[in-house]
Automatic annotation (TrEMBL):
Keywords: Methyltransferase, Transferase. GO terms for molecular function: methyltransferase activity. This is Class I SAM-dependent methyltransferase. The keyword Membrane does not apply. It comes from Brevundimonas diminuta (Pseudomonas diminuta). GO terms for biological process: methylation. It comes from the Bacteria.
Length: 207
């Protein structure tokens, strides 16, 4: 399935100016996982947008692969990596037309990738799991349905949001280390700002 041109155009328009819509600093949940990461690990950051998370992973010494549907976002990600003095393999592709790695990643990161509905989400989650090596680490953060009342970021469709039961079912074949549901104040650029209803998943692929 190829990404529709209008989808790519939508995201290009969203990232068109020089402002980093979700900031240049890493997602707060991801940054809190620094002790779980070691230099030399291979990491994939899914739908990485303008690169804030992929670049941060590279700054921790990881070998980082990212992709995003928007050529403009990838351009900004590469510019951010250059400013930070790190290497980043940032590629252009949609969730269904990008060639996902299989069994090669020590870490797979998904942060606020909630622009997809349930069917596409099922495919994406399956590919994220397939990308991991045995023993590999999955780090996922998203909004809970309560986010709709806050209106401080994320999609406006409840079906795209994550609940604990959904994540436990989707990742039942992984070893779930923790699932945390909580509210927190986000300050991650104009796109994610204010009190937010969050849920975090940390899991490992069985050896």
């Amino acid at each position: 399935m190829t990404a529709a041109p209008d989808t790519r155009a939508f995201w290009d328009a969203r990232y068109a100016d020089d402002v980093y819509r979700f900031g240049e600093a890493p997602n707060a949940f991801l940054a809190r996982q620094a002790e779980r990461l070691q230099p030399g690990l291979k990491a994939l950051s899914v739908a990485d947008g303008e690169g804030r998370n992929g670049v941060w992973l590279a700054q921790q010494g990881l070998d980082v692969l990212t992709f995003d549907i928007s050529p403009r976002a990838v351009e900004k990600a590469q510019a951010l990596a250059a400013r930070r003095g790190v290497a980043l393999d940032a590629q252009i592709g949609g969730l269904d037309d990008w060639i996902w790695p299989e069994g090669t990643m020590d870490v797979v990161v998904g942060v606020f990738i909630q622009f997809v509905g349930p069917a596409a989400r099922d495919r994406m989650f399956a590919r994220m799991k397939t990308a991991l090596k045995p023993g590999g680490l999955l780090l996922l953060e998203g909004y809970r349905p309560e986010q709709l009342a806050y209106g401080t970021g994320g999609p406006g469709m409840e079906e795209n949001l994550y609940a604990e039961a959904l994540l436990r079912e989707a990742f039942a074949d992984l070893e779930i280390e923790r699932i945390d549901a909580y509210d927190a104040e986000l300050d991650e650029g104009p796109g994610h700002s204010g009190v937010s209803a969050l849920i975090d998943l940390i899991a490992r692929k069985p050896l």
